[in-house]
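Much of the work behind modern protein science is quiet bookkeeping, done one molecule at a time. The protein below has been through that process, and both of its lines are reproduced in full.
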Amino acid sequence: MTYFFWDSTDWFGSTLCCRYTLVQFGKLRLPMRIDGVLTIAEWHWALGLFTSGQFQVFGAWRDEGPETPQRIASDLHDRGLERVHTLSADDGLVAAMKARHPKLCERTVAELVESGAASYRMRQAIRWTDAAAQRLQERMSRAAKKHGPFADHAAAAEFIAQAFQRADRDLLADYWDRAKPPPYGVSAAPRVLVRAA
């Protein structure tokens, strides 16, 4: 079966839904060989969870210094993101998201857990998203190691776009698996991204 993949410029700018239950950010370190010198490039990525339990990979952004969190927050806003119930990110990203749109993020995962106000459904959503993000991070790291150093940032962006699109497809397949009623006595816990990279 063949799948259609957008190129990196289209995929990184795709339209997002306006509301998500939970958004989790992660970081990916890619080996680069630029002008014969081996270096590491950091990329931020984000995974969103809908109220339905379906995941969506938002995209990836190359870290270009202190202005990166503001650039990410602005990009997400421009692509249609209006409200996030709970956010899991480092302090810089949380501050940038709140500064860009004060009502964008209601609270962080840490604030929600500390308040003790997390419902069973919210705790389950946090566990699902954390597990999906961890598997996604592991999968992308393995794929990057197999590929080896990238010749330039454009090649790295194309690799990330293709790999995350495959992961997005697998997350959708996992959603449909979770949506089916489990056999009696079997846990409904997600088997997120168990497919090979």
Remarks:
- The longest strand covers residues 19-34.
- The longest helix spans residues 120-147.
- DSSP finds six helices and five strands in the chain.
- Helices lie at 8-12, 68-78, 91-100, 109-115, 120-147, 153-179.
